[in-house]
Amino acid sequence: MWDRTSSKQCGTVVLLFSLLLASASLDTLDQTQTLTNGQTLVSLNGIFELGFFDRTTSTTTKWYIGIWYTVSREIVVWVANHDNPLNDSSGVLAISQGSIVLNDSLQNPIWSSSVNPSTPKMSDPILKLLDSGNLVLKDRNRDDILWQSFDHPSNTFLLGMKIGKDLISGVEWYITSWKSRNDPSKGNYCYKMDTLGQPELVLWDGERIKFKTGAWIGPRFSGLPEMATYENMLNFKLVSTTKEINYSIEAADKGMHLFRLIMNETGVLQRMMWDQEKKIWHEYWSWPNDMCDSYAKCGPFGTCNSNDAPICKCLPGFSPKSPKEWSMRNNSGGCKREKPLNCQGNSIGFKSVKNVKLPDTENATIDATISIKECKKRCSMNCYCLAYSLLDIRGGGSGCIMWEYDLIDIKYIEGGQDLYLKLDKSILDATGKRKIHVLIGIMVPSTVMLLLLLTVHCIRQRQRKKKTGYADLGQDKRNYNKSDSLHYTELPMFDLETVIAATANFSDANKLGQGGFGIVYKGVLSGGEEIAVKRLSKDSSQGLNEFMNEVMLIAKLQHRNLVRLLGCCIHDSERILIYEFMPNKSLDFFIFDKVRRELLSWTMRLEIVAGISRGILYLHQDSRFNIIHRDLKAANILLDGEMTPKVSDFGIARLFKREQNEMDTGRVVGTRGYMSPEYAMEGKISVKSDVYSFGVLLLEIISGKRNQGNHNLIAFAWKLWQEGKLIQLADEAIDNTDGVASEIVRFVHVGLLCVQECADDRPTMSIVLSMLSNECMSLPEPKKPVLSTKVTPESSSSPIELTVTGIEGR
Ligand SMILES: *[C@@H]1O[C@H](CO)[C@@H](O)[C@H](O)[C@H]1NC(C)=O
Ligand SMILES: *[C@@H]1O[C@H](CO)[C@@H](O)[C@H](O)[C@H]1NC(C)=O
Ligand SMILES: *[C@@H]1O[C@H](CO)[C@@H](O)[C@H](O)[C@H]1NC(C)=O
Ligand SMILES: *[C@@H]1O[C@H](CO)[C@@H](O)[C@H](O)[C@H]1NC(C)=O
Ligand SMILES: *[C@@H]1O[C@H](CO)[C@@H](O)[C@H](O)[C@H]1NC(C)=O
Ligand SMILES: *[C@@H]1O[C@H](CO)[C@@H](O)[C@H](O)[C@H]1NC(C)=O
Question: Which segments constitute the Apple domain (predicted)?
């Protein structure tokens, strides 16, 4: 056998020689061999080659290990030591102690592959360059891969690679530009997956979003209609599970490897294919490719059309926010509504805005399981919903996206989607009329033409109706399942041993807290991922199937402001839920702490209140299941690394059987101080009892004080209201200068509306959100809250029957 170690001086010659003699081993390096300058590994299909290459700038020449195409050696698709080049060509690549190591001539380590220390020891480790261009480290006799270059991409995306995110460890796969043509160190541009909302890819220029592909709509991204052209040649795949979301491309023709996507040094993505006849790389398309691709070009509620001059317009029913800036082609301010939406009554309707790239879905609500008809109904009923659209365009279409916040990044494109925009009826009628006026205005010279046009228009309308009539959508069960599985695949099951190992056998040191339904522990999985483990108290008498149904239901509730369930574990009578870990603990840890509450500025508190209310609104109304939380309190609001509030413990009440006497077990659902009078005294639960708890929480967040004893915080707020001094409720830690005072007063006012004695008087969560965010909305006078609760569960002698009416509501 050919020995690479001995071939330092005349590598190329040996290589060519060995090509004839020992071609079978050319793609592989084992632990007895080394690779030095001049020697290479070549994939079996002869397309990719791994070895040393150099790049020369004006002053120096640097050496790297990389992978390139044999047909065009200048195109390097992967670089190992981007940021730590060799100063000369005398590096040595080898397998050493289970990882790949690149040393310089003085045995200084230059680069090495990171390998998880817990991976089993390999008896015969090999490094192999696969036909796909993937360099893998594995045991010769085993299939599992310990390390692969596809997990550490450079500036090039190849078939079989992925862009995405591991939702458990937070690891992301993405491509990054080189600094310059001759400098492979990491440049400013990268192309990543955005997993908030419906997944989409984002081109970042440093900290700034340069371009977004638009949401994934089934076969492709909304903003890249060009993808449709390649559907017979390339298979675009988006996989979304509770563990991982990734995007990859497969070739319909398995032999096709001379295809690549590159994030180039000037911040442009180029899709390149090799032209075998001309022996050149051909650029098929590149993006961003027009001014409208620039993210949020026309601001909120603006639309962009690169064939128009000017390119920016406002959505129907909207006009420029700042006409002066707008006329000077500064469109970033966007547009504002001409007539506000009236939440109550039937005064709204929808206008379809056709052929668009859908607005940014970062904050949108997504439901893959309902029809567009149901989607429309939900959007009409939700005061906060501004627009809706179809989620998945395949096979007649299915699923629902609803937007409640600014509609951003809308572009007109050939073959785009339809966006249904909520407008006041009077505006709808007016936009309709305006169009007819224009038509008649143009056509008056020729009435004949007008008639012709109208006829054609009517026929088209009829045909279109036939093709995509909404009534057909509900019936196509197959499509439902398809999109359902796209979004909600099986929930991962953890074995008990894994959970025990992660939590040091539920040790007290790992205990994070104790709630009504069990104890929460911090855990660390073997890969290093941090998790929160909730061990449910054993007396849930539910059957296994029923339990799993409920857990799957909780797993399907996904919202930015809800804690995400990662998996569960069932073993004999053990029932364990595994959640994402929240590094900033819970809200009570901040707001009731003398020192830490100083960290919470008014803006942060405002964001926290807004986030909590969105989370609750989702539970009450926007998720399919209409869940009542029953135990909202500061300790159940967790905070992630960016202080985004996440409601936790939702839906858990459902895991326990309804008949169970919750008094007996000592697990009173609900916490003193947050319980509405009708719940505390009569055990009545409704969405309005959650609103009450939210009101208490709101007052606590503003004041930094607990509502203890006989509702003393509420009593204090009520006293201040009567004296007209609501501002005095604010925590001294809040700097209330600068127009903040009026906001604080409005928030306290809303808090008082939420804690009114009579449940019917309290606003719903969607109205609460409008009240909090709309400074012009006039608020009703709050009625007197209950200032002392005579009967509380703790003091009552007879057990309280809990009627859990709302929980079953579907
Ligand atoms: C290469 O040379 C530069 C400049 O002399 C030095 O800073 C760097 O450490 C050297 N790198 C290696 C791998 O020897
Ligand atoms: C690389 O250098 C380290 C010491 O820095 C040494 O232990 C290792 O054997 C070297 N590997 C090779 C392949 O030269
Ligand atoms: C994408 O994620 C799924 C689910 O985790 C996984 O099975 C698949 O291999 C991933 N795709 C690629 C190209 O790695
Ligand atoms: C990046 O791609 C664009 C579009 O094809 C091209 O005009 C530009 O020259 C490329 N930049 C580099 C550095 O190759
Ligand atoms: C563009 O308009 C926004 C407000 O709409 C303003 O804040 C910004 O300064 C303007 N930019 C320029 C370059 O004038
Ligand atoms: C989504 O919401 C966050 C927080 O309110 C906001 O910063 C962001 O701009 C929103 N994104 C879009 C696209 O509206």
Answer: 343-424
